[in-house]
Amino acid sequence: MIETILDNDLYKFTMQQAVHRLYPKARVGYELTNRGKTPFPEGFERLVKERVAQMAGLSLTREERVWLEKACPYFTQAYLDYLAAYHYDPDQVEISQQGHTLFVRVDGPWCRTILWEVPLMAIISETYFEITSPEIMSRQAIRERNQTKAKMMANAGLTFVEFGTRRRFSIANHAHFLEDVLALDHHRMTGTSNVHFARVYGLAPVGTLAHEWIMFHAALTDYAAANAAAMDAWLRVYPDVLGIALTDTFTTNNFLKAFTRDRAGRFSGVRHDSGDPEIFTRDIISHYKEKGIDPATKVIVFSDGLNVDRAIKIHKFCRGQVKDSYGIGTNLTNDVGVDPLNIVIKLSWVEPEPGMEGRSTVKLSDDPGKHTGDPGELLRCQKALGL
């Protein structure tokens, strides 16, 4: 089901390089959260285990490495050597099922476990729809829907990136979406988060960092210092590229306290992933102005559960104020007439360095429904931040 090591989102590789350089001895745990409470059918655990076991045979090919060197010049030779020697270790993944409830946990060195999240979610999603065999739209109807969406965004002057690996209906449908858009004479798709498909279709691979980067730094330092520590560490590895800061790990209001004039100047923009997008946009623009920075020189990447209509509405609001781009995922790669799974795999535990006490990790959000982590630790985090 996962046929190449590059069938993953770019931000997993960019973070892996940063972890390999800065935190090679850190150990972590990840856990599945089934937000939608989807009941999984009998035997589901066994199939997922089989497909996870098959990933042990994947490795970076010589041709893939050559392409990465050209497409992603920020990857160092030292990191590419590491990736070329990398193999998935299925023993790091614990999968079990009780009744209709699926449990998934990943444990091990951070630099070796970091690549599991996205393909694991893709496997769970694809396997679910394979077993349940729901009735879906015809290929022609899906093509028309895909192209209609792309035309609507092009007509609105909106640029977007395909972000749909994690909850796709199938890898075939994922490929079909990209092919359908690329077949149009005019579209404004500027890239894909999926590194494999970027290579196959000559697209730009797009991505920077995820919430786990900031969550780790909360365990390394403390909640109040996490955003600043995470941004500064990122800039040490990527001082001139990949400069999109993620704002909502511990709420955007808390993030802005650490988004000083120097950091705001060095990062090319921010990503919105929860909360009201119009309020967020006003707050970010106001913050830039307070710091003496022209908001029109910065970009906001919107990625919070978008569909085309919502993206167009946000684009109209942003027009003339700030540059905007859109990462659209599930609505592009799993819009075939079924209800997509609402699942996430998040960092749950961190041992930053050998000898340091392990700590539970949590993520707050500008949307309380997206909080993740141990309830007691969430309360401690909120108290520490005065929330």
Q: What this model shows, in words?
A:
It is built from 17 helices and 11 strands. The strands form 2 sheets. Strands 5-4-9-8-7-6 form a 6-stranded parallel β-sheet. A 5-stranded antiparallel β-sheet has the order 2-3-1-10-11. The protein has 2 domains: 10-136 and 343-360, Alpha-Beta Barrel (nicotinate phosphoribosyltransferase), CATH 3.20.140; 139-333, Alpha-Beta Barrel (nicotinate phosphoribosyltransferase), CATH 3.20.140.10. β10 (343-351) and β11 form a beta hairpin. Helices cover 45% and strands 15% of the residues. It has 387 residues and is of the alpha/beta class. The model has no long low-confidence stretch (mean pLDDT 97).
Quaternary status: single chain
Q: What portion of residues belong to β-strands?
A: 5-15%
Q: What summary fits the major beta sheet?
A: 6 strands, parallel
Class per helix and strand makeup:
alpha/beta
The share of residues in helices is 40-55%
Helices and strands in order:
Elements: H1 10-22, E1 27-34, H2 44-54, H3 62-71, H4 77-85, E2 93-98, E3 101-109, H5 110-113, H6 117-132, H7 139-155, E4 160-162, H8 171-182, E5 189-192, H9 195-201, H10 211-220, H11 226-237, E6 244-246, H12 252-258, H13 261-266, E7 269-272, H14 277-290, E8 299-302, H15 308-318, E9 323-328, H16 330-333, E10 343-351, E11 359-360, H17 375-384
Parallel strand pairs: 4-5, 4-9, 6-7, 7-8, 8-9
Antiparallel strand pairs: 1-3, 1-10, 2-3, 10-11
Helix pairs in contact: 2-6, 7-8, 10-11
